[in-house]
Design a protein that fits this description.
With 138 residues, this protein is of the alpha/beta class. It has helices spanning 12-19, 34-43, 94-111, 128-137, and strands at 3-6, 27-30, 48-49, 68-71, 118-121. A five-stranded parallel sheet has the order 3-2-1-4-5, with no helix packed on it.
Length: 138
């Protein structure tokens, strides 16, 4: 299984897959925090670092080869504990990059005669209005 993890952090997604004994072929990571990337590289040197999710169109990967898309998109703009600016906050607007990537993967998989990508997206407790908004984006 090839995995793309957006907003990867320190690769907790890889840890979970490993603990579930799920065999990972290639694990691509999109993360811009240098400390998270350093932790990720230390824990899993085989991970392929792609960098900024907003620059996904510059990545040199076959999006159709992605079997699982994981994302814990930034929560500060959506959290009930935050300022609740949603996608009016640049961090909150990253959900749109997630959707664009998800759509691009499914487009490529469709061209290759494959089923839609499996996905796991997570975030924090948020207002129902935000939850409905995000769900309707998909």
């Amino acid at each position: 299984m090839n995995v793309l993890s957006l907003f990867n952090g320190m690769s907790c997604g890889m840890m979970a897959l490993e603990r579930l004994n799920i065999k990972v072929g290639k694990y691509y990571s999109s993360e811009i925090d240098k400390y998270a990337n350093k932790a990720s590289e230390t824990l899993y040197p085989e991970i392929i670092q792609l960098g900024d999710a907003t620059k996904w169109q510059d990545w040199s990967i076959d999006l159709g080869s992605i079997d699982l898309l994981m994302a814990g998109f930034p929560c500060q703009a959506w959290s009930m504990a935050g300022k609740q600016k949603g996608d009016n906050d640049p961090r909150g607007a990253l959900v749109h990059d997630l959707i664009n990537i998800w759509n691009a993967i499914n487009h490529e998989r469709g061209n290759q005669g494959k089923d839609p990508v499996k996905f796991l997206f997570e975030n924090v407790k948020m207002k129902k209005e935000f939850l409905d908004y995000i769900n309707n984006l998909f």
